[in-house]
Design brief:
mainly beta; Immunoglobulin-like; 8-stranded antiparallel sheet; 4-stranded antiparallel sheet; 15 strands
Length: 220
């Protein structure tokens, strides 16, 4: 069964709420206050300009948190740190360590691939397709912005169904997330409230090329 069909099947099952709690610290052992505990099953809206919603889960001054969720995993994130995806097991006491971001580029190719662009849009958004030629045809990144174009975070489906998942949250609030499914399909998204750039459903070789393209894409 594909990850997407598995996700749909899980949604059809009765939700069994689990409680996850723990402490978030940095590499020096200091508590990380106000870290977000996201993708608990509620809508995720990330904006540094908006006060936390009442139902959001954040760490306190001691770095502690507690959340009740029917989701299979949550993401612990805070600006300036590498995020952590944590599997949910009822009653577990988690000890999470967040590392500071040390790298801002994922491009491993020299020279980077040649890029072409194509503008698109509608009444409520504008977008640009940054694409390259591959042996499977043109593949690219769609970067767009608009009032409701992005809620500032990757989809919970992508978080929950990816076999491997990686994420950083920059000081600006932009989230750079990526992963791949069990059948080897890669995806990546950079998002902030109102804008995102993303590619989906590509093989590893194409993903490595598009990672270089992503370095040159600026969210508006």
């Amino acid at each position: 069964m594909s990850p997407f069909l598995l996700f749909i099947a899980l949604l059809c099952l009765p939700a069994l709420a689990a409680t996850i709690s723990g402490t978030v610290r940095d590499m020096s052992g200091n508590p990380v206050e106000n870290a977000r505990i996201d993708h608990t099953g509620r809508m995720v809206v990330v904006s540094l300009l908006v006060d936390p919603f009442p139902n959001e889960v954040r760490t306190d001054a001691s770095g502690r948190f507690r959340a009740t969720t029917s989701a299979p995993a949550v993401v612990v994130r805070k600006p300036g740190y590498v995020s952590a995806r944590v599997a949910v097991n009822d009653g577990d006491e988690e000890h999470i360590v967040l590392e500071r971001i040390t790298s801002y580029s994922r491009c491993k190719l020299s020279p980077p691939p040649k890029v072409k662009t194509k503008k698109t849009g509608d009444v409520d958004y504008t977008a640009t397709w940054f694409y390259i030629q591959t042996k499977d045809g043109p593949k690219g990144i769609l970067s767009g912005s608009g009032p409701s174009y992005s809620w500032g975070a990757p989809s919970s489906q992508d978080v929950w169904t990816s076999k491997e998942y990686a994420e950083v949250m920059y000081e600006s609030g932009m989230i750079d997330a990526s992963g791949h499914t069990s059948d080897g399909k890669y995806w990546r998204s950079r998002s902030k409230f109102g804008a995102s750039a993303q590619y989906y459903d590509v093989n590893r070789e194409t993903a490595e090329q598009l990672d270089c393209v992503m370095d040159g894409v600026t969210l508006r």
